[in-house]
Structure formats: C-alpha cells, structure tokens
Design brief:
Shape of chain B: globular
Distance between the termini of chain B: 36 Å
Helix content of chain A: 40-55%
Oligomer: heterodimer
Strand order of the largest sheet of chain A: 1-2-3-4-5-7-9
Order of helices and strands of chain B: EEHHEEHEEHEHEHEHHEH
Number of strands of chain A: 10
Largest sheet of chain A: 7 strands, mixed
Largest interface: A-B, 54 and 67 residues
Structural class of chain A: alpha/beta
Helix content of chain B: 25-40%
Number of helices of chain A: 14
Number of helices of chain B: 9
Strand content of chain B: 15-25%
Radius of gyration of chain B: 21 Å
Amino acid sequence: MGINLEFERPLAPLREQLEGLDKEVAAGATDELRLRRDAVAAELERQSRELYAELNRWQKVQVARYQRRPQTLDYAKAIFTEFVELRGDRAYADDKAIVGGPARLDGQVVMLIGHQRGHDTKEAVERNHGQPHPEGFRKALRLYRLAEKFGMPLLTFLDSSGASPGLEDEERGQAWALAENIAAMTELRVPIIASVIGEGGSGGSLALGVADRLLMLEHSVFSVATPEAAASIVWKDSKHAPEAAEALKLTAHDLLELGVADRIVPEPAGGAHSDQAATAEALREALLHELQALRSVPLERLLADRYEKYRRIGTFYE
Amino acid sequence: MRSLFRRAAPGTPGGERGDKDIPEDVWVRCPSCREMIYSREWEAGFKVCAKCGYHTRLGVRERVALLLDPDSFEELDGGMRSGDPLRFAPDGIQPYGEKLKSQAAETGLLEAAVYGRGGLDGLPVVLAIMDFSFIGASMGSVVGEKIARAAEVARRERRPLIICSASGGARQHEGIIALMQMAKTVAAIKALGRARLPYISIMTDPTTAGVTASFAALGDCILAEPGAVIGFAGPRVVEQTIREKLPPGVDTAEFQQRHGMIDMVVPRRDLRAATARMIRFFQDAVASTREVPAGAESGAESGGNGRPAPEPALAVTVAG
C-alpha cells in the first residue's frame, strides 16, 4: 500500500494548512491564530466525515490495509495498561506475523493475541505482511491453552489477508494448523472477543476469529478471501478485485447486516489512522462493555451459545 | 465424471481389429497414461487404471457403491438447496442463483455434498460425500449445513462418521457466510469427538483450502487416495506465491503423508476395509471402558430432519 490513500487527495490542501497553522501555534499562539487553526481543523473533520461516509467497498479495503492504520501492537500500548509479549510455538519457530501475551484491560487480566502486518517495508517483510506461517497459528494455539488454564478471557485482533501460501507452509501443515485453532476456539472454556481492526480475510483470520462476540472497527473489512483472490477465482482475473470487493459484501455494515458481526466500533471522522488515540479509546470501551457482559454468562451457557451462534450461520431451503 | 476421460473412437485399440460390431462405449482411455481399458473392467475397478494406478475422481453414487453395503444408503436432507445470502450478481458474471440452477441441471446434483445413514461392512455409519463436479465442491451454506448435520446425526444415533472430502475451498459467491461454515462444521465435529464417536476423514482428489483447513483435517484417522491433490493453497497458488516451478508431487497425498499430515494412503479397492478396521479399533476401545463419555446423549430426541430418530444404533461390534 502506498504512503497515501488516493481518495484522500482532496483533503491534502486542508491538511497542509492545518500542519502549517499547528507549527505557527506552537511557535507563539495568539487567540486569532488559534481560532483560525480550529476553524481549519473543523473544516477538515467535516470534509473527512463526508468523504469517509461515501467510501465504496474497494476504497474501504484500501483503508483497512493502509500501512498507517493502527495495528495490534499499537492497540496493545494504547488500550492495555500492561502487555508482555510471549514468543514461539515450542515446536519450530517464533512467527512475528502473530503477536500475543497476557495484558491488563482496566485491571482485568486477559490474553491478547493479534496479527501484526508491520508499518514499514522492513517491518512488513519481517512479519511476512501479517500472513502467518503454521508456527504462528501454533503459537496462538499455545496461548489459547494458557488463557484457558488460567481463566483469562481471550481478546483477539484480526488484521491478516490470509495464511501464508508458500511451499514451507504446505510442508508444515498450514491447513492442519488452521483447523486446530478453529477447533480449539469452538470449545475454549473462557470468553472470546474477536475484533477486526484492519483487513480480515480467509482462514488465516478465522483461526483467530471464532468468538462469542465479533467486533468490527467501522472501516475494517472481513472477507472469505482477498478481493484479488476472489476475482481470480470468479472472474479468472485478479484485476477485477474492485468489482469482487463490491460483490463480496465485506464491510463492517455488511457483516452486521448478515448477522456475522455483533457490533461496529465507530472510527474518527478521517478513519482510525487520523486519530489513533480516539480509535483506541472507542475500542477499549467496546471491549470493556462486551467483556463485562460475557463474564456474567455461566461457562456452559457461554459454550452452548457459541455453538449455536455458528450453527445458525447459513442460507438454505429445505 | 464426464470430464476426465473420453470415450475412445471405435476401432482404435490395437487398430487391427474389425471393431464394427463392438459398441462405442466398450473402451475408455486412462486420463493419466492414455492406456485403453475395457470399460467393464474400468467400472468394476472403480475407475482406477489397472496399468498406472491413476485414481479418476468418483461421483457420489460411485462413492456410495464403493464404501457402503448394497442398498444400505439412506440419504438425508437430499432436497436442501442453497440461498443467495449476498445476492451475488456482479456485471458480466453469471448470478449465483442462476449458477446453482445451471450446475444442478448439468450435474444432476442439487449441491456439492450428500449425506445419510448406511452400513459399512455391517457397521451402521453416517457417511458424507463431496462431489467435485458441483462448483468445484466448494463449501457454502448447504455443504456446511450437511456436514454439521451429519456430525449431529452421528452423535445422536451414536454412529461413527465418515466424510469423503473433495473441495476447491470456500464458495466465493457466499462470501463471509461461506468462511463461517468452517467454524460451524468444526464445532459439530468437535462435539462428536466429545461424545467419543470415531470420525474417519477420507481425502480425495482434490482436497484443498477451507475444507482441508476445517473438518477434513480433524479426522481421528485421515486416509487419502493415492495421487490425490491435498493441501492448503494447492500447487498452482504455491507456484504463484514463490514464483518458482515446483517439483512434481508437492501437495499430493504422498507428500502430506511424508510430512506427517495424513495417516494412510489407501488404494481405492482397500478403502472400505481400511475404514471399517479403524472404526472397529475405536469402537472396541470405547466399549471396553466403563467411563461414560462427556456429551453422550440418548437417541430419544427428534432427528433434526423432520423424522424421528431411530433407536440408537448398537455402537459395539465384536471384532473378527
């Protein structure tokens, strides 16, 4: 993904103006300067809100994938008072496309696990663009078990276009790793809240995404496959990705309507990347709210509800 | 199975015989080694080439005949049809609703999976079969629902479950609903396991993506047919990813066995016996323990398909 989002270009002049005014205010603020600065900021927010309200699905995919969009480790810092990253699958390697460990949310101990794509090219390469190898999923599985053992609610953050599809992944049983994670999540004896924070896609996201509650950030997407992959299957040409994105109905609002997502977490006017702190706060509040609700549900009820939640998904006639 | 082999032109085998009086459909050509095979022999051998061992894909009826005792198969929910949750109809692409109809007309199937009760070597079982000819046996709502119901019927009636999988993955036309079938099927399979009932996964050509990565990978024992393509991404996508030509044999049954992912590569003629043998191991073991498995339920509730469930099948057979 490029440095800038193409459709945000109309906002560039206002952004520059605001940046300049911020510098001037910092150098020596006068009331008049502050008023001018605030007026420009308000105008930028108004235009951002308008722009973001009308994004088509393909543009939403661009926002969801945007390299400046906050990722799991950003939220780990912003939302949780404490987080310790645990490493490795105890079998083969430590996969940096998935990060996880115990964390404190408003004093409550939880297990936090999420995909991490990387914010720049170097980090993205190190983390395989957030496409986990089997050892990443097996690390997550180890942490699921740890969470269960100590009764820590599991919070997962989904931000992966899918599991890595290379030769080494086939050799190490990628499909088997995914299946084991999905299986473990269907019967894990702690509450699970999954949040889609960016681009959720395919089995590589579902392997972190079977949950009692599925939250989606307003401009995140969650799809059966990337629009490119779906286009190459249905159109036999990945260039049709924009049409595929439209047809796949992959936005937060689509998933809420389809009954797959449970809650949309609102983003600031210009998307999560425009105000990371505000996004983190909104997500924190939503997580606290859902966690409190789930904690009051008896465990056997929770597991039966989880089974039913997935059992009901599907459209067919008899 | 129309697509994989062609009927030979009359008179071609050997070339020297005056074949005028032999019907055209007497010979078939092996799709792999091109050997001419007498069609009765070909059908009797369940479409395995006697010369090179190539296993041609089987349809649902052929699979039932291969695995189950004659006339023992009782299909359940045979009339189930898919909805169109996304109203998938982008410009220039056949709308999903129409595609389902044209596929049904072409294949004679209503969906890519069939399931029901049957007897396997005398054992009462639940069997589900996927048929690649229907939209690449992709998993959408109906495949997901049938697999989940197969596991639930097996659990209620205390029968072992056998699934013959084949699939190109999740059905794109159903988007996220298709992806969620992975969780749904897996949840049902895990519930079956908690009731300590055996699940034998038989992987056939090709088993890939969302189906391998959900219920197919979770068999108590995983069998596969020789030469079957089995994997996650499949060889074509792997080649595109690494931008290199792969050596032959990547993502085959033999490759997966070598890498520890499946238990046995079983020639088609031995599949029924191998399946029965594994079921008997598990059943006899359970029968000899006194512990009541968690999740075991009585067979008294209704069958989930509008019919009352029959008396629970006798889960124990004496070996030998």
